[in-house]
């Protein structure tokens, strides 16, 4: 079982840091899926957002890592998608960030796939 190093930051706090990183670079349609009560879930939370271009998607991913590290000193356990910049996944074990190009997000529809999860939408105008 993989384990996060810094247990001083709860998975709920970590998911808020991820969302903050998304907001910093104008991530769109930010959704937090609370998977804690979903049987066989791979994490406590998924935090999902969309970007308009591969450049923006890359910037959002970098911003997530910067915000999380700055406030918690946690590095990602695993990352993928940085080369293609269409779907970047940043895995913090308990929290997984998904940064999608808009059309790809619709195609994979994680919100529907994990439909049993509690869904929270973030108001981007509050940033």
UniProtKB/TrEMBL annotation:
Coiled coil: none annotated. It is found in: Cytoplasm. It comes from Rhabdobacter roseus. Keywords: Cytoplasm, Repressor, Translation regulation. GO terms for cellular component: cytoplasm. The lineage of its organism: Bacteria, Pseudomonadati, Bacteroidota, Cytophagia, Cytophagales. One of its GO terms (biological process) is cytosolic ribosome assembly. Interacts with ribosomal protein uL14 (rplN). Functions as a ribosomal silencing factor. Interacts with ribosomal protein uL14 (rplN), blocking formation of intersubunit bridge B8. Prevents association of the 30S and 50S ribosomal subunits and the formation of functional ribosomes, thus repressing translation. HAMAP family: Iojap_RsfS (MF_01477). The keyword Repressor applies. This is Ribosomal silencing factor RsfS. InterPro entries: Iojap/RsfS/C7orf30, NT_sf. Pfam families: RsfS (PF02410). Belongs to the Iojap/RsfS family. GO terms for molecular function: ribosomal large subunit binding.
């Amino acid at each position: 079982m993989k384990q996060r190093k810094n247990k001083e930051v709860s998975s709920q706090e970590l998911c808020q840091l991820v969302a903050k990183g998304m907001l910093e670079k104008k991530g769109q349609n930010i959704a937090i899926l609370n998977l804690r009560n979903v049987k066989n879930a791979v994490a406590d939370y998924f935090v999902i957002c969309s970007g308009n271009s591969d450049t923006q998607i890359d910037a959002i991913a970098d911003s997530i890592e910067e915000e999380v590290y700055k406030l918690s000193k946690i590095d990602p356990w695993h990352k993928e998608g940085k080369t293609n910049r269409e779907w970047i996944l940043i895995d913090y074990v308990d929290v997984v960030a998904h940064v999608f190009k808009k059309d790809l997000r619709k195609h994979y529809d994680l919100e529907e796939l994990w439909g049993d999860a509690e869904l929270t939408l973030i108001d981007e105008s509050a940033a």
